[in-house]
Structures
1.
Amino acid sequence: MTITTKRLHRRSVLAAAATLPLAPGLGAPAIAQSRRKVTLVYAIQTIDSAADGFFGALPIGLGFYADEGLDVEIQTVAGAAAAVNLLVNGRAEFTTHGTAGLFTGVDKGVPMKGFICQIPDYFLSIAVDRNGPVTRLEDLKGKTIGVPAASGSPMFVTKAVLKNLGWDPDKDVEFLAVGAGLPALDAFKRGRVQALVAFDSVFALFEYHGADFRYFRPPPVPSLGFTHTTNTTLSVLEKDPAVALGVGRAMIKSLVYMAAAPAEELTKLHFKVFPASRSSSMSEAEALRLDALRQKARLAFMRPKQRVFDRTEQLGDATDAEIIGQRDLLFSGGEIKTQHPAAAYFTRQFIAEYNKLDVAALVEKAKSYRA
């Protein structure tokens, strides 16, 4: 089976968000003209899964943005650099993407910071065939490893892993750029690569297509974090903090729903908000099954137990150690030139407000949610 993914153009994203009715009992629709209009840019051209629901389908479809008096326009672009460029040029108030884009933006002098960390753990793994000859990471010496691209954080992390083994990553293995879609899985199945480096939801897609992996997450992967943030300019944080707080608080509610609501219902909501993301080549049952795998894979790196259910950690926060770990990884790979302190990249000015929400009550609502 092949999956056809439809690209979500800006108009389709906006049209879906504008026409979707709010879920009953989750906040009365505000008069559109009275809401503050802001633009949020996602650094990937498709929003194809409820695994990305924390900024898109959930706060739109459940009315969380509207409850904050916000009319959020979501734009999609190819890459964090393009997203940050819109922020710099005043064409957007917010961006949401992997933190490599935040670090490089700050390194280039962009006056921006993250103000909510939605994915605290680093969601990259190295995978091999569970039934193949590679049973230890050390067995990869002399083998070919498939990576999404010849640069970027996946490559830097993989090289750091190999250096920790005492290897020379430029001599002891071969790297092959295979992308982050089904062509990568094809390269793996055909033996062109003996291991794949990829992110959580990508591996979920591969598993849906029958792959059976053994996963490795050796040092420094477990110590990395601060993986995905939503960001804004220093000007917004200083002069208009209420709008950033509103965006963040809507996303916090969405994180709770991701942790507690039935995965199938979140997928149904996602397809209502972003109908173009539904593959025409898949049955509803198969689409729900694939998206459930993606959500499960994503939640594994979002600490729902600690942040939502046990409440031993603050929702939306990240530690200085996690921030510095990412900074140092990018610095060692040559992606950034300066090592600023953690506070240069992330502000905790709204964390206390986020966590004043009645999370237990939200969990109960989420458990009974039906799209």
2.
Amino acid sequence: MNKPYEKQGEPSLAERSYIWKTAIGLQQVDGLTPSKYLVETANANIQGEISIHEAEQFIADYYENRQEKNLPEDRTEEADKVSVRIASVLCGQSFKLSPVELLSIHKRLFNGIYDFAGQIRNFNISKKEWVLNGESVYYGDFNDIQAALDYDFDKEKAFDYANLDARNAVKHMAKFIADVWQTHAFSEGNTRATAVFAIKYLRTFGYDVSNNTFEKHSFYFRNALVRANYNDHKKGIKATTLYLDCFFENLLFGYNHPLQNRGLHVDAKHSITEKLAMKKALSADRTRDDPTEKKNPRRTDERE
């Protein structure tokens, strides 16, 4: 006899703690800092005093009833609302590998904050990057965003992970996530939406993302995405997912790669030859006493 469906409950105290650390840490990618009230609300949820849905309502009510209005340059309200919404999304277990999922996450996080929440941008963009000495990644043309997303997701759905060990599977997933980010489907909020999407996707493989990697290194995550999508062959700069691989190996497998933003800068004191040597050395190190070598991630049927 089939058992009935069960209503999802809230994660454990430890899981809630890591979820909130991730949610708050991800605000760093846009230089935002949540308020003391948000932190107090997060702690109440972590301790089980209020549910995640109550926490979200508390933050909404706080800004609805707040007498003092934020100055245009004060984005604390955005930081608070997006933090609690990220926590709420990550407390859930639903997921579908589809561009619709990415758009839905963006709408969920930024509804009422950006007029274009969940909407594909209708103009081309660039952004000066510190890590690139003020240059910009070439983002996807707005006319082609839907087609680009459809292509990336269809290719990922068709990919067979069956014969890959866990580390190489994650390397492939990192490249997929970097490609989705490079499309930059939205006018703002791309990195935070992509990070939430990535976490939920990785969970469907059975990976545990309960640690402080996103909390402490979310700006590194963004810079690693930048370096995965930037080429300047005249200067010997080639797009590489090496930095992103290191981030995910720390996140998922307990590696302790140093995640230092200055090391991602295009002027860092490493030539291309040295970087290739570093990559080779990293690969050699990973094959010795690799904690993932016996793991083989499995897909859930939610992917279908």
3.
Amino acid sequence: MSNTANQELKGRVALVTGASRNIGRAIALELAGAGASVAVVTKSDIAAASGVVAEIEGLGGRAITVVADIADPEGIKRMVAETIGAFGQLDILVNNAGVRPESKIEDLTFAEWRQVFSVILDAPFFTIQAALPHLVKSDTAAIVNIGGLTAYTGAAHRAHVVSAKAGLDGLTKALALELAPRGITVNLVSPGLIDTVRGGHSTLAPDHHKKHAAMVLGRRGRPEEVAAMIRHLVGPNGRYLTGQTIHVNGGAYLP
């Protein structure tokens, strides 16, 4: 949690999926640091999510752990209902949860294809639908989808992931136009190579990362740097930004 002296999100409620670790954890802490109450969503790592909640509460914030399988539309409805039951409102939605399996195209099954789409693209669709009746009641509602570098650069052995992430970019633009009359901003943040824990090892990364190893800034990003962008987009100084894809990648991809 940074800059807790500036509580620009005080009185707001945020729901962050995939918030038990890495970028999601950083987002939850950052929004809480700005004064928002946060629903910390996890599929199965209850201990880690509860740890994030404890960090927030230890610094004087409000948070709850929500256990939900976002590949299940009914689970998504319960997730939103639990958030509303705890806080009574919803102002900020961050669709962060994702999966990144690899498979050669000749080995990729339709079941594997659909599983990736169910998390990366279907889940934000269902979550936004479930959250919309509550977001429209907010005078500063904001949705942020978390994309990925390979949606713009491509990646071998990730046809399903790249396709789903590219679809998320399209969903963001379409909903920015559709929801603007209701005062809701919709943006996408696309992180580059971020120093996160994969499979228990912070240095374990897929082969396609080698292609983007030479960032202009010469280093990997920190989850907190991605979270800071989300804080800006959902805050009072981000109200004129909608339908945008913001690349936080240290220069690994220059559109």
